[in-house]
Amino acid sequence: MATISSNPAMQDLKITFQESTLVFPSQETVTRSLFLSNIDQILNYSIPTVFFFSANPDYPPQVVCKRLKLAVEKVLVPYDFMAGRLKLNQESGRLEIDCNAAGAGFVVASSEFSLDELGDLVCPNLAFQQLAVQTLDNPPANKDNQPLFILQVTSFKCGGFAIGMCVNHILLDGLSARTFNENLASQAFDDKPFAAVPCLNRSLLAARSPPLVEFSHPEFFIPKNLPNSGPPVFDCKKEELVSKIFKLSSSDIAFLKNKATPPLAAETNATAPARISSFNVAAALIWRCKALSYDDDCNKDRVSTLLNVVDLRSRLNPPLPPSYCGNAVLVAYSSAECGNIEKGPFSKLVEMVSEAPKRITNAYVKSVIDWLEMSKGIPCGEYMVSSWLRLGFEQVEYPWGKPVHSGPLVNHRKDICWVFPAVDGINALVSLPPKEMERFESQFHNFFAKIRGILDDHEEEKDMDGSVQLGVA
């Protein structure tokens, strides 16, 4: 049953910080400058994530902290750049990582609550930001000297705990982060080898010399107010946002796939084509809701563009190593007028979302990288959907077990929707200004109600934590 989960009332986890320090590679590393690709350059912002674990009597929080601290020290040897600092090369105007072993952050904290008292861990909660600090107080809050990676262990009075990570996106994309987590978990065991050796050669995604732009790239634009030095950053301003989880069960996904079947196939009772994925139908629905909730008037002639984050590793020739460590991602775009999005068949939206990644071939990727070399642009779209469905963070096993929940923390990004696995189906984390969220929620509700013909047959049922049951079986 499709549901909408809103913020719980809890605003403060009553956190006490016991330790805030730097940790360093367990072995001496070579001081060097790490080249960053044009894709890396524009992703200079932090991504906070959290992993919740149930109590394990064999691994009380103090043991977990000790093992994790040692594990971080070990992984900082092959991942030496994660203990480095960002620097701007004044001659080239490019960002680099100074692999100088300046250290990663390590924070130990405790909460006065138990995990059960936090309610639904999936439900977006601003208080959870306390589980992944973004800066260290010691050393002093000097931007140039702040760690690019901070790990925080927060224990709860029940014996459960959370591992929060704040990682500058320049360091890792989703698949890189999955490999890093596997390596971190492996080193928390007594004598387990690394899960994979990271490939640190980011020059594999360097621009050609001379650059050759062979395609048009409307998914990027050049900002009006470029920084005086350094690359532009793909970010957005901070403002008041409402964050909610839009949940689609497996039956909801099956229903959407059926709606996504082209009309001719539906008339012949054919099954949905194999190419219709769960992500594509979810992304198409999210796009529809976002496009039609953009403003009060909903200008039918306005063009709405959805950006879909696509992994490049298998799309290049030769392919990148699976363990490529960096940002091997680009955005595939789908554009349509709002009037067509509203009145056209849902199957058309799904088709557009499904077809967009096919545009990203080896030649297209190289053209984008060369365009970025020449133009210093950033992604251009109304909304971006980033899928965590296949990253498998919830499957990473530590000595104390797998996380009971893992996912992104609520942050200031109103332009990105994160889609991640649910126990039964898919969760979509959406953050929007209050009025726009009301319109988005209404579009989400009405889409199911209208196409099932039950708009007047079911009343909304609200549970204690603010979830809205939409009457979708």
TrEMBL record:
InterPro entries assigned: CAT-like_dom_sf, Plant_Fungal_Acyltransferase
Gene Ontology terms for molecular function: acyltransferase activity, transferring groups other than amino-acyl groups
One Pfam family, short name: Transferase
Entry superkingdom: Eukaryota
PANTHER family for this protein: ACYLTRANSFERASE GLAUCE, TRICHOTHECENE 3-O-ACETYLTRANSFERASE
Family, similarity comment: Belongs to the plant acyltransferase family.
Entry protein name: Omega-hydroxypalmitate O-feruloyl transferase
Organism, as annotated: Handroanthus impetiginosus
